[in-house]
Amino acid sequence: MQENISKQNSESTKSQSQSDQSKVSIINPFTEKVVREFDYESQSQVKDKLNEAQNAFKSWSQQPLEDRIKIIKKFGKLMSDNKSDLAKLMTEEMGKTHRTGLAEIDKCVEIVNWCCENVEDALGSETIEMDEGVAYNVFSPQGVIFSIQPWNFPFYQVIRYSVPAILAGNATLLRHASNVWGSAQRIEELYSEAGLPDGVFAHLYAKHEDIEFLYEAREVRVVTFTGSPETGKVVAEKAAKNLKKSVLELGGNDAYLVLEDADIDQAVEACVMGRMINNGETCTAAKRFLVVDSVYDEFKEKFVAAVKEVQIGDPNDKATKVGPMARKDLLKKLDDQVQESLDKGASCLVGGNIDKREGYFFQPTILENLKPGMPAYDDELFGPVASLIKVKDLDEAIEVSNSSKFGLGGGIFSKDVDKAIETASRRLDTGMVNVNGYSNSKAQLPFGGVKESGYGREHGRFGFHEYVNVKSVRVLKQDK
Rounded to two decimals, what is the model's pTM? Predict the structure, then answer.
């Protein structure tokens, strides 16, 4: 889920016409043709949106919870009713397969429904009896939430933070990745159509330098960012400098451990899906495959055979499993990472190159003989490239897994489920772990990581609590 906002101007330049730098041109990564254009807003227009958001917050935060729920439920219904068109929009803007786009909207609707059903419990006050009286712990909305989101899940990333934040009574300003501004515009329209008051949700069609002042604005109370660790550090520093809370969901290099008692066929199927899902452009994708020596050859043979069968091509075709990468610069970066790994001694078992066809395609790839110092070992490869690493046993697998600078997710394949749960709970240094399968985020489960994968948790009740003020109200006994 990567986008470096410090590079958004250069990123925008790559995706817009060179003749008119006042516009953003969105390029379909399958056809390499411009599909829509947007004018940049001025800093003055951004300031107007901030003022509108603050004014909207004052009234929205006082609306009864049941009224807020009613509007958000309608928003979810509108997404469901328009699912096919929304999936088509994502395919057009960032190359997501239509099938994956449909699943993304289903996930968004799931989030809406879960949040609406559970917001009362998540934000319900707690009563604490004391000798000197009684206290109430309450959860109060804070104000304007400033959010910067990436392109790889254009709807989900926005829904994940905005629905709980808005249900809690906040307003929000979003700066989406500029290659998916059509998706951002559609989200804004759907919120409005559902009856959300003007200013509660607004997208900023602005250059990076024209939103910088928001870090200092008193109205902004929380900054939430999804993207690269490098930019996450910048965002966190700017927020901290102004004593603002930040929520960061950054990169991942998730390791999936295949142990000696694993069901190899099950592991291969899950690992191929986990690596190739969303064209390989997923922060929680399975990226490193740590396979113990005793089953390494069997896993390798079946893994290679399965990846060779992965069909790439037209993202609108139901048979396509991997579509184009979202942008040309991202395609080049992935190619550079693969070639550097090969130059440093890695071996390529399948794929390994940019595919020679129209569109931004990279071949489904498996690299092995990897060592520290290679991008395929150390870094996040944001595309359909798998890193296959042989380990001696579980202890070495854990050591290799935990040696990563990232700590987002991971997985374990073993028939000894109790041991796998214990290992996941006590020994793996990540925010999330799958056992005997691959699964992405769920509305009711906390989502987030540790180390350079960021901090804070979204989804579940934690997704509400990131955006509220936890306040104690004490009523003291009066002396008679």
Answer: 0.94
